[in-house]
Amino acid sequence: MSSTTHGSTPYYFVPGPSRHPAMAALGLFFVILGAGQWVNGVQWGKYSLFAGLIWWLGVLYQWFGDAIKESQGGQYGRKIDLSFRWSMSWFIFSEVMFFGAFFTALWWARSHSVPALGSLDNSMLWPGFKAVWPSLAAGVTASPAGTVEPFTTMGPWPLPTINTALLLSSGVTLTIAHHALLAGKRSKTIGFMWMTVLLGITFLCVQGYEYHHAYTELNLKLSSGVYGSTFFMLTGFHGFHVLVGMLMLLFITLRLQKGHFSADNHFGFEGAAWYWHFVDVVWLGLYVLVYWL
Fold it and tell me: Would the CATH topology of 1-75 be identical to that of 77-292?
């Protein structure tokens, strides 16, 4: 059992037995089962996937709700706050490794794989192959074997640059909201948080239009060789992280409107802010390495 030191706040809160982990695992089981069957042409797979996903999201809603009630009930003391900070730090570190692997794949393809395919050893297999990264020279996107259709690379202007401005602006509005919360100005905090959420939604809309433009006008697809696969892999996973971060900020904003968080107790806000700033930093690297180089 937890021992209490100050008032009713436990020194270290130990929650009681919970059904949530088992229920979440059950939902994920049907998600993975359905996905595996769906990609192999089994029609009931998609129903299993969506049913499992709905079940899993419902469990998370209840689970997070219980955690919020515990927090608002004064059950989380300094030790829990510290454990949350370490947990979020390690989670963001794992995300750094996640994107680091993809950036390494991009570097390896550009610096090693493509030059190796254009070496003397492979000149007889692909005599018309140009060992140049597609964004560095025009007319080198089509493969000699005809397996990749000609496509146009995606440049930095205007859509990626617009999205860069949107994300950088969202980082500013989020920082203003944080300082407003520290100063006890809840209305100002909520206003700038809504601005941050709207900037994140706008980013996703612009990226959706960018993908439509790539597929319909540039003929740039996921099947467009290693350039297409790395382009959509990096930008797509980043877009997914923007979606997750935007949802985190949205729920934090709704909690602020309910009176949650204070100047002294608001790690839920801080954790979401850490994640969003991480997403901003990743985009800056992606903007330079994918769109400019």
Answer: no
Q: SS3 of 248, please?
A: helix
Domain ranges of the chain: 1-75, 77-292
Residue that the structure tokens 């919360």 belong to: 181
Burial of residue 192 (number of CB atoms within 10 Å: 0-12, 13-18, 19+): buried
163-190 residue pLDDT tens: 999 999 999 999 999 999 999 999 999 9
Pick the CATH number of 1-75 from 1.10.287.70, 1.20.1250.20, 3.40.630.30, 3.40.50.970: 1.10.287.70
Q: Report the run of H or E that residue 10 belongs to, with start and end.
A: strand 9-10
- Using the Cα atoms of residue 204, residue 205, residue 211 and residue 213 in order, give the sign of their dihedral: negative
Q: Which of 204, 138, 128 minimizes the C-alpha distance to 166?
A: 204
Please state which CATH number belongs to domain 77-292: 1.20.120.80
Q: How far is CA 153 from the centre of its chain?
A: 23
DSSP 80-137: HHHHHHHHHHHHHHHHHHHHHHHHHHHHHIIIIIHHHHTSGGGTTT-TT---S-GGGS
Q: What is the pTM of this model?
A: 0.90
CA distance 109 to 73: 53
Q: Which two tokens stand for residue 155?
A: 């440049």
Among all chains, which residue has been given the structure tokens 């259709």? 149
d(CA 153, CA 147): 17
Taking Cα atoms as reference points, which of 73, 80, 84, 79 lies closest to residue 8?
73
Q: What is the pLDDT of residues 213-246, one digit of tens each?
A: 999 999 999 988 889 999 999 999 999 999 999 9
**Count, residues in the chain:** 293
Query: Would you call 20 exposed, middle or buried from its count of C-beta atoms within 10 A (0-12, 13-18, 19+)?
Result: middle
Residue reference for tokens 């794949």: 105
Q: How far apart are CA 55 and CA 32, in angstroms?
A: 13
